[in-house]
Amino acid sequence: MSNIQTARRLLLAGLIAFPVLFLPAGSRSEAAIAVQSKTDALSKALRAERNGWIYIHLEGSPDEVGYQHGYLLAREIDEALRVFKKYAPRTTKREWQFYRDSAHELFWKKIGDEYQKEIEGIARGAFARGVKIDADDVLAMNAWIELSSYYVPSLNARLADPEVHQSPPPSCSAFIATGSWTRNGDIVIGHNNWIDYVIGRRWNIIIDLKPASGHRILMDSFPGFIHSGDDFYISDAGLMITETTITQFKGFDTEGLPEFYRIRKATQYSSSIDDWLKVMMDHPNGGYANDWLIGDRKTGEIARLENGLKNNIVERTKDGYYVGANFPVHEKTTREETTFDPTNGANSANARHRRWDDLMKLNKGKIDIGLAKKFQADHYDVVRKREAGSGNTLCGHVDLDELGLHEWDWENFYPGGTVNAKVADSQLAERMSLWASMGHPCGIDFKLEAFLKSHPEYGWQREIADDMPSGPWTQFSTATRKLGEEIGTQRGIQTNTTDYEDAARRRRDAGYPKPPPIPAPQRPPQ
Questions:
Q1: Least confident range of 89-98, 161-170, 226-235
Q2: What is the 8-class DSSP label of residue 159?
Q3: What are phi and psi of 372, to 5 degrees?
Q4: Residue 79 and residue 81: Cα distance in Å, rounded?
Q5: Which residue has the higher pLDDT, 153 or 163?
Q6: How many CB atoms lie under 10 A from the CB of residue 331?
Q7: Torsion of CA 498, 503, 504, 507, to 10 degrees
Q8: Per-residue confidence at 170, pLDDT binned at 50, 70, 90?
Q9: 20 to 30 A from 357, CA-CA: which of 57, 75, 322, 332?
Q10: Can you name the residues that pair with 176 across neighbouring β-strands?
Q11: What is the pTM of this model?
């Protein structure tokens, strides 16, 4: 019997055994029905771990997929919540209760019954494993970026405290190409996520979501999120989606619809680029304002949506490319909705924009999955004109940059940068599959204690941070197994063991420990 089969049977056995033992006799029939329902829901779910990633398959109604998510990721959700409760007050001067209250007031009624039930299910599933959490915690986690980087700055004038994060997060280097720009004319898409390492080292979830209604989705994600968060999606409608954040965006509409709700709804219920655009452009609130890159493998068409508060500008092509590096694309958006300086060549967003354009032109007609992986690991700094990871390189290493990224409120040598990478093409999307690399795709590990020894000014992160090892490129696909069978290397998860880049660049410690096993089921706290 596989480890995953054993884990599932232990989970289900524990779920059945524990709750009924402690109930009065008259309640056991009702309790048995409730337990059976949860058991049935978990029987459709699965968790597996590979190369720093946690893969989960979720299937069923909103209640069911929420409960599965919370139950299978209880340990990770508990840890993420612990981090947010310490990180948010330090970087925004707002306690976690503020985020709970604000998320509930601003967003709860706007996200609709389906996603309310899923969020409540996540809280119940985690609670069943002993996590002290409720729906407002889960909602606040999903809304964290919109609240901390957009809503909070809208409430008061900019503070003079250098430790306070008052600008949108950096979030990403990305591209999408099609037609004569790619090797076989199909779409190729790639993305890496930039964020504080203390947060990003936990951005290691791959979710295969098979909802009761709408399209199936394969995405990377964060514990407790109903969306990707850093935003890389493949849907069975043929859509391929990613984004990069608009640097120094300003403005927030408390009456608008949250981004995490719009992107999940758009991806789940859209069958075309047109469908998707309608949802994303429906009353945005300005939170997590992005330049979205989207492709439709069925038609070969790609598009870019600059999704601001005042401006929603769309470009489309069947022969070309779009890149993202946190720069606002259009002059109107730049002027009306940001404080961004497009003439500052040393700005990280502008530097990476130049590097992207150079790589696209240099590799026209050759872009494929192999090159997409190389792009995500690229270390050429066009400002310093050298090969060395920094805040100006596509694979970001602000922890190695003596200048920091002050446009994002990241001081010199701030422990942040690229934390994961994903790539796909039309053929992979047709099979609902993608490649992902956890940590820096260049292969450089982040070592916390060594870093803090050199930069003690960030010692406050010690109690919530840790190392961030780099893992090899690994292929993930939607689950095609029979229920109860482990996802094996043939279908569900494949490890790239022959990639010549990995052999040349990986520096992983031989003794790096495997993740601990899933904890035994616990009785919910009384």
A1: 161-170
A2: P
A3: -60, -40
A4: 5
A5: 153
A6: 9
A7: 150
A8: low
A9: 332
A10: 189, 322
A11: 0.86
